[in-house]
C-alpha cells in the first residue's frame, strides 16, 4: 500500500493488486469517515481490510471504465457496503450491464464524498466513456494515461483519434497536477502533468495522424515496461 497524500481534508491510498499490476485507489474524507474506492478489482479482501483498519465506510465506488480488470471486485464490495456506484453515461451504454445501483454522470459533474469534491472528466480514447477523477491537485487517470504512457486504443470501443484529443486536453491542466494511473507500468508510480508533458512520448505529437500511427502501429514494438521518460525530439 502506498499513501499518495494525506492532508487535513482527505487521504488517498493506492493498493497494487492483481496479475496486471492494477492500482486501486481509496479516497477517504476525514470529517465524515466516508471513502470512495476507484476501480475495485482482484484481491478485494485487501481493500476491505484497509477500510476496517481505518474504521471508514465505503460509501462510493468510482469506475474509470468497464474493462474486466478494473471492475471484477465491484460486486464483492457491494456485498459488504451499501455503496453508490458511479460511472459516465457513455461508459454504461458501452458496457451494457444492468446494475442495481448505478449513478450515471456526464463530464464536468462533481461527486461529493463527505466534504471532498471529486470532479469527473470525460476522457474517451481507451473506451467511449472513460473517466478521470480530479481531486484538487490529483488526477486518477485509469487507463487513459499511465506514467510515460497511455491506454491501448485497439480494443473494443477504443479510438486513437479521441485519445489524441483527450491527452491534449489533459495537458492543459495545471503542471503540478499529480497523475495517478490505473497500472504500475513505469519506473515511478506517479508523475506531475508537467513531467508527463515533457517525458510522455504520447504527449509530444502535434499531428493527429502521426499520433494514431504511433499508438496503433509503432509504440508496442519499440517500448518495453517499465516505461521511462522520453524527452521530445525538439528538446
Q: Work out the oligomeric state of the chains in this entry.
A: single chain
- Overall mean confidence score, pLDDT: 96
Distance between the termini: 36 Å
Work out the number of β strands. Answer: 15
Q: In one word, what is the shape?
A: globular
Could you walk me through the main structural features you see in this protein, from its secondary elements to its overall organization?
This protein has 235 residues and is of the alpha/beta class. 26% of the residues lie in helices and 31% in strands. The protein is built from 7 helices and 15 strands. The strands form 3 sheets. The chain has a 7-stranded mixed sheet. Strands 8-9-10-11-14-15 form a 6-stranded mixed sheet. The protein has a two-stranded antiparallel ribbon with strand order 12-13. Helix 5 (160-170) crosses helix 7 (208-222). The mean pLDDT is 96.
What are its keywords?
235 residues; alpha/beta; seven-stranded mixed beta sheet; 7 helices; 15 strands; globular
Question: How does the SSE layout of this entry go?
Answer:
Blueprint (H helix, E strand, L loop, with lengths): L1 E5 L3 E8 L4 E8 L4 E5 L5 H11 L2 E6 L5 H4 L2 H7 L3 E5 H7 L6 E4 L4 E4 L2 E7 L8 E5 L2 E5 L2 E2 L2 E2 L9 H11 L7 E4 L9 E2 H7 L8 H15 L13
Parallel strand pairs: 4-5, 5-6, 6-7, 11-14
Antiparallel strand pairs: 1-2, 2-3, 3-4, 8-9, 9-10, 10-11, 12-13, 14-15
